């Protein structure tokens, strides 16, 4: 695998537990990341499909002030978010909160990384009934779970409801055992797919640093396994002189080893939601 696919460290199966997956230096190419100075709101770094989502060339964004892109009320929103020192987890903003181009709806997430404010943008679909009414999606996933007679029944019902709302071909509930190995304990799938129910996986299946990120950032989306990463420009942040920590990024580039793993499973896109109990992955 080429270095540019994940980081400057050459990674293989012998050292994947040391792969620096929190600083990949690139994002998934369908979205946009803007790294801002919290004080001035100047763009320090940018990545992704800025032409499609912002109608702006990527090369012209670093060094530019956000006031040249956003309306005054949007600038006020970013300033208030940048003033929140506890904003370490993403704050999600539905379209049109941070829409830049009038004809290009986007959903956004915003979080702080030290003195930096990270803004991530993805194309929004205003016609999606769950996008316009997120509570409807939540209600659809939670309905009836309180009436399930056992943990196994709760997990099975949750898998079925999440699949119904998201439209994925397969949804699994994965539980860690005492020895840190894992087991698929519930599954809802398309009828023609091979079942993964009750499959067991060794502890090494999910490296330690990946587990740490699942605790920090409970939601992980990979829209398409086969893609060319979109690198941050410039590669190092000019304010810190270091690569950007993307621990809380929803667009963070995915390890090439993990993508190969997904391809071997026949997976083209995935979403992971962490179940955390008493500070540990369940």
Q: How would you describe the overall organization of this protein?
A:
The chain has 282 residues and is of the alpha+beta class. It has seven helices and 14 strands. The strands form five sheets. The protein has a five-stranded antiparallel sheet with strand order 3-2-6-5-4, with helices on one face. Strands 7-8-9 form a three-stranded antiparallel sheet. A two-stranded antiparallel sheet has the order 1-11. Strand 5 and strand 6 (116-123) form a beta hairpin. Helix 4 packs antiparallel against helix 5 (151-166). The protein is globular, with a radius of gyration of 20 Å. Residues 1-9 have low confidence and may be disordered.
Strand line-up in the sheet with most strands? 3-2-6-5-4
Biggest sheet statistics: 5 strands, antiparallel
Helix-strand string: EEEHHEEEHHHEEEHEEHEEE
Shape: globular
Using only C-alpha atoms, the radius of gyration works out to 20 Å
- Helix percentage range: 10-25%
Q: How many angstroms does the end-to-end distance come to?
A: 32 Å
Number of strands: 14
Q: How many distinct helices?
A: 7
Structural class: alpha+beta
Mean residue pLDDT? 88
What is the beta-strand fraction? 15-25%
- Enumerate the spans where pLDDT stays under 50 for 5 or more consecutive residues: 1-9
């Amino acid at each position: 695998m080429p270095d540019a696919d994940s980081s400057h460290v050459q990674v293989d199966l012998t050292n994947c537990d040391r792969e620096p997956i929190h600083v990949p230096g690139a994002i998934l190419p369908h979205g946009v990341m803007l790294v801002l100075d919290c004080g001035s709101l100047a763009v320090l770094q940018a990545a992704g499909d800025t032409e499609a989502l912002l109608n702006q060339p990527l090369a012209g964004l670093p060094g530019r002030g956000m006031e040249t892109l956003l309306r005054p009320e949007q600038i006020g929103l970013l300033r208030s978010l940048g003033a929140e020192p506890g904003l370490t987890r993403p704050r999600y903003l539905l379209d049109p909160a941070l829409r830049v181009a009038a004809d290009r709806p986007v959903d956004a997430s915003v979080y702080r990384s030290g003195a930096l404010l990270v803004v991530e943008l993805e194309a929004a679909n205003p016609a999606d009934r769950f996008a316009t009414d997120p509570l409807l999606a939540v209600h659809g996933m939670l309905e009836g779970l309180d009436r399930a007679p056992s943990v196994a029944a709760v997990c099975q019902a949750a898998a079925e409801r999440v699949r119904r709302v998201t439209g994925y071909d397969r949804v699994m509930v994965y539980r860690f055992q005492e020895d840190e190995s894992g087991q698929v304990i519930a599954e809802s799938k398309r009828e023609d797919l091979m079942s993964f129910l009750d499959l067991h996986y060794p502890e090494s299946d999910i490296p330690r640093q990946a587990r740490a990120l699942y605790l920090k950032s409970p939601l992980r989306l990979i829209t398409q396994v086969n893609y060319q990463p979109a690198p941050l420009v410039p590669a190092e942040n000019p304010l810190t002189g270091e690569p950007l920590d993307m621990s809380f990024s929803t667009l963070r580039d995915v390890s090439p080893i993990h993508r190969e793993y997904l391809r071997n499973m026949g997976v083209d896109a995935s979403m992971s939601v962490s179940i955390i109990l008493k500070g540990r992955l369940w």
